[in-house]
Structures are given as structure tokens and as C-alpha cells.
Fold Phospho-2-dehydro-3-deoxyheptonate aldolase.
Amino acid sequence: MVVVMGPEATEADIAAVVSIVETAGGEAFVSRGVSRTIVGLVGDVEQFGSLNLRRMNGVRDVIRISAPYKLVSRENHPDRSVVRVGGVPIGPGTMTLIAGPCAVETPDQTLRAAQMAKAAGATLLRGGAFKPRTSPYAFQGLGEQGLKILADVRAETGLPVVTEVVDAHDVELVASYADMLQIGTRNAQNFSLLQAVGEAGKPVLLKRGMSGTIEEWLMAAEYIAQRGNLDIVLCERGIRTFEKATRNTLDISAVPVAQRLSHLPVIVDPSHSGGRRDLVLPLTRAAIAVGADGVIVDVHPHPETALCDGAQALVDGDVRELARLVRELPPVFGRSLTQAPDALAMG
Amino acid sequence: MVVVMGPEATEADIAAVVSIVETAGGEAFVSRGVSRTIVGLVGDVEQFGSLNLRRMNGVRDVIRISAPYKLVSRENHPDRSVVRVGGVPIGPGTMTLIAGPCAVETPDQTLRAAQMAKAAGATLLRGGAFKPRTSPYAFQGLGEQGLKILADVRAETGLPVVTEVVDAHDVELVASYADMLQIGTRNAQNFSLLQAVGEAGKPVLLKRGMSGTIEEWLMAAEYIAQRGNLDIVLCERGIRTFEKATRNTLDISAVPVAQRLSHLPVIVDPSHSGGRRDLVLPLTRAAIAVGADGVIVDVHPHPETALCDGAQALVDGDVRELARLVRELPPVFGRSLTQAPDALAMG
Amino acid sequence: MVVVMGPEATEADIAAVVSIVETAGGEAFVSRGVSRTIVGLVGDVEQFGSLNLRRMNGVRDVIRISAPYKLVSRENHPDRSVVRVGGVPIGPGTMTLIAGPCAVETPDQTLRAAQMAKAAGATLLRGGAFKPRTSPYAFQGLGEQGLKILADVRAETGLPVVTEVVDAHDVELVASYADMLQIGTRNAQNFSLLQAVGEAGKPVLLKRGMSGTIEEWLMAAEYIAQRGNLDIVLCERGIRTFEKATRNTLDISAVPVAQRLSHLPVIVDPSHSGGRRDLVLPLTRAAIAVGADGVIVDVHPHPETALCDGAQALVDGDVRELARLVRELPPVFGRSLTQAPDALAMG
Amino acid sequence: MVVVMGPEATEADIAAVVSIVETAGGEAFVSRGVSRTIVGLVGDVEQFGSLNLRRMNGVRDVIRISAPYKLVSRENHPDRSVVRVGGVPIGPGTMTLIAGPCAVETPDQTLRAAQMAKAAGATLLRGGAFKPRTSPYAFQGLGEQGLKILADVRAETGLPVVTEVVDAHDVELVASYADMLQIGTRNAQNFSLLQAVGEAGKPVLLKRGMSGTIEEWLMAAEYIAQRGNLDIVLCERGIRTFEKATRNTLDISAVPVAQRLSHLPVIVDPSHSGGRRDLVLPLTRAAIAVGADGVIVDVHPHPETALCDGAQALVDGDVRELARLVRELPPVFGRSLTQAPDALAMG
């Protein structure tokens, strides 16, 4: 941490900063320039944060210079991690496709979507039983009934299940059915929920908040990690900007940036980023090319009657092209499409 | 709702749209132009939403023309509402000051902050016992112990208490101590929590999401209202933009816009908007001048050692100016500073 | 400037940084911590900028700690400036109203708008002869004919003229008619134009870029100042954000922030910020309350047929309320409405 | 265009809208619903725009339903265009690499950068002689001397030259040296400049404004096209958002979206988007994968002493990897790297 003194700061002001830092158990190094003085701090940064140095006389600015997250940082963990979900790896070397319906509606719709997913090369099934919707009048998901449908479809297809949880109170229930718990964009700073999934003993898919910085995203992951769970996969799903031609703006640069800052795998959701079916395949290509560890896409057997986000779901006619894409493109970048684990394939 | 057909749409495409709308129980009016045709829909908009008209052949765009919120809308409720909190009104005609520490730290700090608040003219006490913090390593609040401190300070000062709840599971507990439940910016789309406070039987202070549109903010209020609670006060607290000179960008225009769209009271948080003590008084003046029904500010007896957001808290030396401001400015705009209810003043 | 070395930096890396800084004529102070070292630089910051220190081995970050603008900064010029336009002051102590039509359309329309402006208490007339329009098919202004109309209306009403210039090549022409040159938001980083108006010998009204930071706005002012012209008035006119309920988001906090960083006067444009007539008066009140040195508003005798931005212009029925507002509100904040200079009033 | 009447609109209000539209030469179709009426307009939209329908009694909203640009739209020109620059094609079927130094500094630096560009597979040379810089104290480019250096290097290497013009007054001069004129992000709404390059008889590289919507970008292109020049290449270079980990946020989705709306070629600038050398290659891969018609990158023989944007330039060590990438990746997506035209190769 660096404290920048203003040009008007007195020697007493500088001494006061040094004193308060040393009292807090830190060390302070003073560098005097012609017009300004800066004080470098060494020690427990969280503790310095509570000193409110910014309020002291003569202080112009306080600048943080180390990452505020520790467990998910790559600084102390240079090798990139692999997270396994029901035996399926997500991480460097592979490209994992997760696919399924946005929302679970009926057993038949879910099974057919899962078959589409499998045909496309997916090794994990996505599908929402609890849906956070902007309108209280919109379909909110089937709840536990939806979880049971997902479990049935897993038994039928062998695909482990990724599903969202929206309330700390539901974590245990959802974890009893799911192979991976998804935290959605609207809950990216729902800290109670992050802590609850941190204790649930299941891998977590953590979507970036729609207005969350990359640093806040990693801090959210740190909340989960701090409860003892490091099986976290980060998911870039578009951020909110002034541009309205797309539902969100896919921040494709966030993939390499997050991979450099954190050892956790990073995947991309091209369906929710663009919000348009015609953008899903181009954005999937971009995600794989930029180095994402996986892609999660919406598919639906009858998108014209989907109860949620039908406008962005891929349809039967797209599956063949998606399958070709995820098979042929990863090898160009030194990766291979993740294969279903044998044990599950027999399920 | 209006369906805009593309120039390439055939008569069959248009007929298909009309047919699906009529099947869903709506009416469709076709207007043919030289290069385009538009179809106006009348009926249950939520149901049309699930038709995925946007996916039909020949459809270029689907445009919603009525507000998606009903209970909080001013369309069917032209008079602006007054919400009462422990007997203190918030609404047209008055200007209510809510003040207190960002976080409850100790009984003494809370009492002294409440005395500062009262001296400034506040009739409601704010203070957080459950604090949502970006870092898991930062102070997270005292929990129920903090609620007890707030209750004690209420008994001592007569100020009803506004405090945040961050988890649906805690709503009953917090409601047993608080006079008003606050939903923070990070939970503005935590729909489980919104529903839970909608059933708690206490007024709600609903902060706007830091990246929430005004429409989304009103939809969040609709979630609460739908559970039977219309005692909702909206709070503009700054939105996230590219500008980093302030912590957030206070969207001052949102006050008159929200007041025009909804009958609910709208207040402003100048402390969290700017994130800087030197901006609190100027932004308070702007808030009152623009027509806000109230203002909520952070005060702290010792901001230099505050455990949360000390840099933005007003100090003893600011109280006199704040008091003058909230007493003298509202009458210029036809409002008066809310007075403490007698019953409570005697408490 | 502070150079933050990474944990992996060697002594040789640190020595290299020190050496390159000293070679460039600066001084470098090294502070060693447990896990990191920081190097404080003193000297010519612009020159250090070209050293590309960020690219050197072991360097993690380079942080600038002094303002990159000098002439417009308040650091070396603590008193706030007054800019005079045709004898009319803009600055501390006064509140100046600038009003007129968005675009000059006809002599009659301009005269009537000027009379509305005067009736409202304006002492300066705004009106565009050169209009930057997003569409090449929209009305682009009358050009020199519009300037002549403005000069005629000035002669008739005594109101000095503020008008936009959009091309460096036109600066001389516009300056020969206008009392103040306006730089619009789309030209906030048109550096050729900024330099040209810096040399034109007339005061400048500099609108903030719609996506410009406060720092970039002050840098744009520095471009003008560097050519010898310090008669610059800054104008906050709303920034571009995700919120679409208003045309732009008025950044009301930018007024006190810019006044603290720069000695230049700062005014507000409530018409272009909100883009809605119903927001003009509330935002004008907020602007005066926050401490703006002036306000610039669109008025039009027949907004329903205006060729530009009719939806945001005040009409006859609003003038009385605006007049009352700008007369009664500034004294509440220790300012008085600027009066027309006698000499001009007789013109 | 669709006019949405409010629930309070009377028959007279509706009749007034129909009347004003018909008077302006348009047609109006009225659709009456249970709670609302909508009026569809057919005719000259620009003219309707000046009617200010939004201000009429009973009107709630006015919605535009056709693209405001015509010449650059794909509606009337379904085949995607190829733009030729000094014989080098940019468009569908090919992937064109443009490379060179951000700024021309010396003959030697420019020649060496051009040789790096050529080694990487570039067929066009970029390089700025006129540099728009945020600070007036930063290097502003060599001007005509820089243009001469570019011409000499073209003679030596055979690479046609792309260079920026920042002032309408300089267009003729720059066009006399350059093969393609570049409009930078800060001038994306400098309409005088757009019109001037529209008349210059040279292809134009049009960067997107850093806060420009895709629609505004296409409107800027329309300004150029309207002056008779349809040889326009669109360049996505990142937009301004709240995220500060990268210099700008590359809006990768804008590539397919713009290609769907317009017949013009669309390329990507990964150097200015990310602002970091380590992101250039990943973003180049994403750009090619998403379907960009070309990529423009900064290269510099000595980035550590570059006078402009050294932190984002590729260096000698990156050239081999870039060369491999642009040769091997386009064929995966049905494109081939553009080859240098023979005539020029001999130049």
C-alpha cells in the first residue's frame, strides 16, 4: 500500500501516518520528493484498510498494490487448476462443453434438450430449476420437481448436472441433486449464498456479476474458497454497458485476464452474453480461440415455446454445427474436447 | 405490445403471428405500410412474453409498450404514497432525514452517532448489523448483537431503526428488532430476499442496484409489493459508470423519473453515491432541490477508526451545517423537515 | 509517479529502473518491503511517461500521483476564476443563466426564443448555427446565415451570444460573430479544434465528452489553456451510461469535483442531460443547489416544430417558473442571479 | 415509426397525430386496443422526426422501427462488400493483417516496424503521423514529415499505407500520401472530418467511437458514404465500460452484429482494445474466430522507448507467433490470409 501525501502535508502529518501504521504492526517507508512525499506500507493490508488513512491530515491518496484475494490468486499458486464435476474435468488442456435448457420445464423437454446437448459433444448438462427472473410475473422455475427431472435425465444420459441455486436456504437441497452448483449473475455479491455454497462440498460455477469488475468476481470466488471449497469455475457471461444491440457485452478479454490473475478455470456463456441465437456460434468460436476452458450454451427442442430466454437457445438445426465446432476447433489451440468419463457413460 | 415485421415477411408469416396471439387469448391488429407491416397486440402481456414471437419467421422486433410493473406503478395509483416508519412519514410534503453509522460497532459509537443524527434533524436512525462486504476479510457486522445495540439506542433516543438484511433466513430476526428493513444495492435482484421482506410486515427501504435500470428497480419493488407489502421507499444511491472520481455516479435524474413512474417515495443516499465526505453536503442539497422525499447519510463520531466506509461519514463538525441545510432548504421547495412523532420523542 | 515492482523483481531490475529514471533527469527513491519494493519518482512526469517503465523487467505497475493538467488545475491557482462573456460574469458568487434555442432556424424563432430567455432571467443567449447531428439526413444548421441572425438578435436584445463551432476551419468565422465559442460533447477530444479555439481570443464553453472522465475534460481544457486562453467555462451535460430512461445521465457530482480540481467555472446543461422537458426544471434546481456557477437551457417558442431536440425545450408556460427559480434559489446558497451589464442592456 | 398513445389519450389526440402525419405526406394506420391505441406511420422517417410527435397531447412514446442509415445498410445491399486498398482486398473470404507502429518516430524505426509487419504477414502498413493525444504535453506526431517517412517505407517494402487524419483541413495533404485514411475513435462523431474524407477519393478505416453504439458507428459511416465514398472499413477497437483491467472492453459481438446490419467489412484492433501486449495475440485469435475481415496491430522494434502506446506493441519475439496465427487460423474458418498484390510487391 502506498500513501501519497499532498503538497501541503507537514512533517507532522507524515510522522502521524508513520506512527499509526507502526502502531498497527506495519512498517512505513518514507520517500521525499521535490513537491510530494510518498509513504510505502508493508504488513497486513486488511488491517491498514481499517485505519482510514485517507482521512488523515495531508493525505492525498491511498493506493493498494497487491491483490485483495489470496486463495484464488495465481501469485501463490502458479499452476492453473482443474476442477472435476462428476468426473468431468474443466481446466487447461481440455475444452468442456456444458449444454442444456435455460429452464427445466417438463421431463420430455429436459430429456430431449439433454440429448441435443450430448449430440453436440457436451459432457455436462445445464438446466435451471430455480430461476431468478426480473419480473415477479414470469416463470420462476419448477423448484424441487425440476431437480428431480434433472436427476432422472442424468440417470438416462449419464450427464452430470449443473444447476443454479438462488437462496442460501436451498443449498443443501440443490446440492443433494446437483453435481455442480451455479451462482447466477444477480447473486454474484450475495455473500450469504457464496458462503453457503462454499460449505456445500460441491463444485461451483460462479458467473460474473453483470456490473462486476474482474477483481470483484475474484473476491466473490474468495468468499467461496475461504469456506474451504476451491472447486470453483469462473464464468464470463457479458457485462452491462451502454450498447443495447446485444443483451450484454461479452467481455472476451476477461478470459485471459482472469486466467492470469487466478488459477481457477474460466469458461464463457455465449448464450446469455449476446441474448441472440445468431450470435451463439460466433461467440463460441471466439471463446475457444481466446483460450476459454469451456463453454456453456442454451439448447431447447422447441425454443418457440420456451418459458425462459427462448430467443437465445440453439435449436436442432444448430447442433451439428456446434458439434463440429467444439470437436475441430480446440485442437487448433492445443486443447481437446472433454470426453465423458466411462463410469458415467455407462450410467 | 407491437410486433414489427421485416420487409421480407410474407402474408403467411403475418397470419402466423396473428394466429398464435389469438390462440393465446389476445387480439392482433395488422397495419400494413409500404415497406413494412406492424402488428399491435392487446391482452395479457406476460403471456405474450412466453410466446417468443421474436423467433417467428419474418419478425424483426417485438416492442413492449406498457410498464411491466403494476402494483407500484403510478398509472393506476396517481397519488404519491406516504410510507410511515415507526410513526415517521416519508413522502410528498415532507423531507425526512435518516442518519447514523454505516456499521454498528459498539454501543457507545452507535449512541453517539445517533445523537449526532438527532442533532442534525434526523427522525430515523440507520445502522448496519449485517454488512455485505466485497472482501471476505473485511468486517462483516456484529449480527444480532448489533441489532440489540440498535434497539437500546432507539430506547434511549426515540429514533426508529432502519437496518439492512442480507439473507432471507434472517428476515424474521431482523424484523423483530427493526422498524424498517433495508435491501442493499448488491441484493437488488436477490428475489428470494425481496419476497421474504415482502412478507415480513415491516416497511422496506429498497436501494437501487448499482447497475440496475430504473425499470429493474421498480420490478424489484413489485416483487415486494406482490407479497402484500406496499410500504416501500425507493433509494437512489449511485450507479456504476466509467467515471472513477466518485465511488458511484449519483443519478439525480432518477428521483423525478421514478416519482413519475411510481407512487412510492424516493430518497437519496449522498454518502454511498459519492463515497467522499466532501461531497455529502453538496449532494444532499441537490437531492432536496430535485425533489427527493428524504436523504440518508452516514455519520460517525470517529470516522478515522470506522470499521466500514469511514471516508464518507460526516463528522461532528459537519452536523451543524447539515442541520441548517435540512431545516432551511425543504421549505424553499414546499416541504418541511419531518418532525419526530411525540409518542416516540417521549420514549 | 510510483513504480511498483513485482514480488519476482531482482535487485538488477530495481537498479535498471533507477538508472533509466536518473538518465532522464529524474530522481528515484527505493522503498523495500517484505514482499515488494516500490520506487518513487520525482521530476518531469511527461518525460517519465515516454520511458515505458511498465515494460521493464520486474515492474508490476506504474501509478501517477499528480494531476496531468497544470494551467487549469487549482493546485497552483487556489482562487476560483471568473470568466466574462460580453461583460457578463460566470463564476463564484453569481449564477448565470444562458438560454436560447437549440438551433437557430429563423430570425423570428430566434428573436422570440431570446425574448423568452430574457424573460426567464438569462443574460446570455445560446443558439446553434452549426449543428453536429448523428444522422447526415438531419438538419445541420444554417451556418453563417444563422450567425447573422444571432448577431441581429443580440443587437435587438442586448444578450451576448454563445454558439457552437464544430470545425477548426470555421473558428475565425464563428468568432467574428460570437461572444463565446462552444465546444460540443462530440468534439471534446477534437484536439485541432481545441487548439484553434485556444487561439481565437474569445471565451470558450467546453462541454464534457459524453464518455469523458473528469480528468479528460480538464485535459481538454488544458489544450485550450496551453494556447494562451484561460477564459474557459466547463459544462457538465450528462454522461453515457446503461440507463436509458434519460438521454444521458447528469453527473451532478462532477460539479463539486471539477470545482475542487480546477479553478475554472462549472455550469450545467439540464436540457441535454435529461433530454426531456419535464426534467429541465428539477435538474436546474439540483444544479443550483449543488453549487453550479450557471445553467444553460433550451427554450423554443414552438417546440412541436423545432428542427432539433424539440422534446427537451422549455416552452412559454415554463418561463415564469424558471424565472422565479433562478431569482429565488441562488440567494439560498449565497449567490445572486447575474444581471445584464448596463452597456449591453442599452445596445 | 410507431406512435404509442397513452391510456388517457382522447379521440381528438389520435386524430391530431393522424392529421399532422398526413399533412407531412405520410400515412397513418390506427390500431385500437382495450387500454391503448397505437398509430403506425409510413413514409419519410426523417421528416417525421422533425414533427416532434413525442410532444403531442396523449402521445406516450414514439418508436423507430427501420434503420436510420441507408447506404451502408445491408437491407438494400445483401452481399458483403470488398474494399481494396492499394490493391489489397479487405472483405469476406480473406483475412487481412494491417500492422505497424502506433506513431511514426524515425525513418529507421518505421522501416524496421514495417519489416516486422511484413514478416508477420501484413499486407498493409499502419502508422500515425498525426496523433490525437489526451495530454497536450504528449508527443503529437511528426505531421507531414511522418507522411514522407511512410511514403519512403512504402516504396521500400511495397506495403500500402493506412494513416490517421485528425482535421478536415489536413485531409487533402494526408490523402496525397496515404492509401487509406483512418478516422480515430475520438473523431467518430467529428462530422466535418467524416464529410471531408467522404470526398477525398481514398478508402477509409472508420474506428468505432469509444462510447459509440453500433448504430452511431453506422451513422458515421453513412456520413462518409453520403459524400460518394463507399470504400469504408469498420474497425471495432473497444468501448468504454466500468471495467478498468483493460484499457477498453473489446466488444467482440459487435463484429457479427455490424456484419449483419451493414455490407461493409469489419476488422478488429486488439492492441488498442486491451492496451496490453499480453492480450494482443489472444484477442487476435478471438477476432479471427468470430469472423472479422481483418486485424490491425501495433508492432514496434523498441517498444521500451516508443513515444506512444509502447505498452501494447508487439515486439520481435511475438512476430513469429503472430505470423503462424494469421496463416493457420483463417483457413479453419473458410478464409485465407490476404496476399500482397504482385504489382506492389515489386514496387
Notes: The longest strand of chain B covers residues 94-100. Chain B has two domains: 2-63, 83-345.
